[in-house]
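Section 3.1: Structural characterization of target chains.
Under the original work plan, the team committed to producing a structural model for every single-chain target entering the pipeline before any wet-lab resources were allocated. The record below documents one such target. The sequence was received from the expression subgroup and is listed exactly as submitted; it comprises 651 residues.
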Amino acid sequence: MRRPLILSVLLSTAVIASPAIAQGASQAASGPGAPGNSAPTAMPIVDSIAAPQDIAYPGTMQLTVDATDINQRIWRAKQVIPVVSAGRMTLLYPEWLPGKHAPRGQMDKLAGISFTAGGKKLGWKRDPLDVFAFHVDVPQGAREIVAEFQFLNPTVANQGRIAVTDAMLNLQFEAVSLYPAGYYTRRIPVQATVTYPQGWTAYTALRGKQSGATIRYDVTDYETLIDSPVFAGRYARSVDLGNDVKLNIVADAPTELAATDEQLEMHRKLVRESLALFGGKHFDHYDFLFAITNDMGGIGLEHHRSSENAVETGYFTRWHEGPGRRNLLPHEFVHSWNGKFRRPEALWTPDFRTKMQGELLWVYEGQTQFWGYVLGARSGLYSKEQTLDALASIAARLDTAKGREWRPMVDTTLDPIISARRPKGWSNWQRSEDYYNEGLMIWLEADAILRRESKGKQGLDDFARAFFGARPNDWGQLTYTRQDVLNTLQALQPYDWASFFDTYVERTTTETPKGGFTLGGYMLEYRDTPNSTTKEVEKSLRGVDQTYGIGLAVQNNGEILSVIWDSPAFNAGLATGMTIVAVNGGEFSVDQFRSALTQAKSSRKPIEMIVKQGKVYRNIMLDYSGGLRYPHLRKTVEGEGSLDKLLAPRG
């Protein structure tokens, strides 16, 4: 799953106490557990839901979805589920979702659920420990039960991501289906039938037969169904990119579908460069599901034979303004190899109830982030200069993550579960999902080491082909461990890879790895002019990003968007959410703010600010004389360095 660079600105375990232990604690306590007071003893937590088994489910589920309501945006589902035996049957709603690395199932939007058998209503009860589980009483003689319910799509953004608009929708089958407990999801057959708004075109990795506005998809397994979402839209276009890959576009307006031959050729080259990199593919066909929209919520989510991608309008029509989100498609395409075919052993689960463990996300997402930028450059979606600017900005921003002093990078792989991507007040001190971009920087250095140690004979391309390109045309999942990663690298080039990764992954650090720059023929430096990436960041922020210098980003209206921990801005008392009203006696403006930073560099005088926090105004004296600071990469070698060679086209 892709996290944009701009966003970075801003099985149950039972603890059982024996009566003797509980009594001892009571005697030592002076509060509620003191002698004479009631003191309960913990009881065992019993998980009564059957564990998944690798056995075939007897029968094929039939799922029917009515997705025609684009006004109230309610999806209506009917699911016919074959019965194994009478008695209690447990049905699960998907909770732990691949690609999201966390329990993100939207149970809160499921409503109106009912179960029947032979036309008679059945009793049901939600499991008290697992609220994603429903226990249904199946009568004798019943051969199937029918579940009916609605999925209530958000109608405003504060309810969740907008997935239905007047012009398009994004149907994810986990939102509108249940599955029986006790089975690997890959062993549960299912057939889905969906009715879309009249006149809309639907795209998915599934195949089927269409009759009017209804498509009856071929029988597949439940795991594949959940891995095969749908984009459908009023304004749509499909482009053949070659090699069994299609770019399926839906847009807010038909003008957004227009693309030049040159633009489409870059996307075709992305496919060719990816196949040249990995040396094989693990899909029979691949569908980019691509929305160009300001109305539907953004997304970047990987699947084995498709990916869900949404960018703001102007992707084709304002191409000349900069790369924007053009890194999204390369990133998600790489995931077909890294994350879907090859998957960390602890991230692969037999069903959508089993918890995932993301310790190796620095490989799953970090190396995908690495290849996303490399393939963006090799295909021309990013120019080489734009790629170098992006890498400079990534490294510089990671250096502002002061949280690395207490929180090792590997701990950030748990952040999808810990924070669920909710906003953080001091994200650079708390750290966020740094395994994406810090993972990129680690793999950039690993590539440079491979090239140096092998005298140019090996690089990370060779690792990609050996590790992710193995077993061409295998469409299953091949899991791996950390040791598998180390063994593959060691076979390519002997080196102390274990210590290398231990230093950057497991330990706290003072700055992000930059060996990929220094060994690759570049160095990070700061200038008073923005590079192409920081220009785009400031355009998106509608303000000034001086994260790398004074330590804050501020919007045009003076609202502070972020403050770097222990920076001059932090030490002066500034915080996210404050509004800068005046700078050096003048009303705040972006130009006034930039001018004050520039003047302070020569005058060495503190910058005077008036800030507003709620209804309170404060005078702030900000001692800073570093001027405007923006990251850039400067070349340090003659001719081609290893970083230049890495970014050069292959296909």
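The chain has 18 helices and 34 strands.
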